[in-house]
Description:
- The chain has 13 helices and 16 strands.
- The chain is of the alpha/beta class and 364 residues long.
- Strands 2, 3, 4, 5, 10, 14, 15 and 16 form an 8-stranded mixed sheet that branches. Strands 1, 6, 7, 8 and 9 form a 5-stranded antiparallel sheet that branches.
- The radius of gyration is 21 Å and the shape is globular.
Amino acid sequence: MSGDTPLGRRLARLIAEAGPITVADYMAHCLGDPEHGYYLAREPFGPGGDFVTAPEISQMFGELLGAWIAEAWHAAGRPAAVRLVEIGPGRGTLASDMLRTLRLVPELVEAATLHLVETSPRLRGLQAETLVTTPVAAHWHDRLDDVPAGFTLAVANEFFDALPVRQFVRTDAAWQERVVGLDADGRLAFGLGPGALATCELPPRLREAPAGSILEVSPASIAVMQTLAGRIARDGGAALVIDYGHAETGLGETLQAVARHAYTDPLAAPGEADLTAHVDFAALARAARSAGAVAHGPIGQGAFLSALGLAQRAARLSRDADAATRAAIAAAADRLASTDQMGTLFKVLAVTPQGAAPPRPFAV
């Protein structure tokens, strides 16, 4: 039965009493409910979880991002105090791998403090275990706003895709907001609510969309990016956003649920499946610019990692390895960068202050 989980039954009661909720509110409940929220109650990462992220595929991903961070620090004149920030740090794997590279730059390690933006107490515990030997003091924060001001080098990998999206459906009369309500049998079901999106809020090329078209917008993503970009513009630094999504704002439903490495109905198991939507990188770039920063890209993850030396790093790791390990390294590199794997769907956006030189490999 659709929604037949503890959280699903709670949401059904809420909807029965107060009326349908927006898709964004549904996502927020499913992912962040204090008792039954997916990220607070389950172990999502790795082969034994529901999905695998790039840091879990290979250490090479984080090591190359660490090299990019070191380059950004050098390009900024090697500031004496650095906030290393990861937003949505998972199990701490990415931070650990980045720091493995940064250990080669002792002056940067000495200047840095590590700041992890994480709301889940359970995940904070896993991160602390992963980073127990880190050479940089680690601090946890519920919000990006809570990270102390100062020169900031930030990474957000597969974070924005989990932020709630609002969905609007084009009808003959307007763009009406899609909601989650109850069908005649009391099961969770999609429908249309009274909320509407003003046509003037859309890019001109989308204003005459045919009836039935779906548009997704993420006010939460815009707010986080404006906070991040505002910090970079004010205090200096650089940020990387890596996620799957589209380079231009467009139409279409991308809301999806994943459980045990397979797609499932987003309404089937509230709180027990991961809910995500494709990231609108054009909207993130506009938000960064509106906060006074410069947005670079996006470019494909494959092109980004290749420019940073993915093939060379894979060859170095393979040099003294046995045949099975060499094959595993090659497969991981292919998965991260090839166009039929993560290389094109996953994209990278960089944010820097006004006047800073474009970072590698975004420089033209």
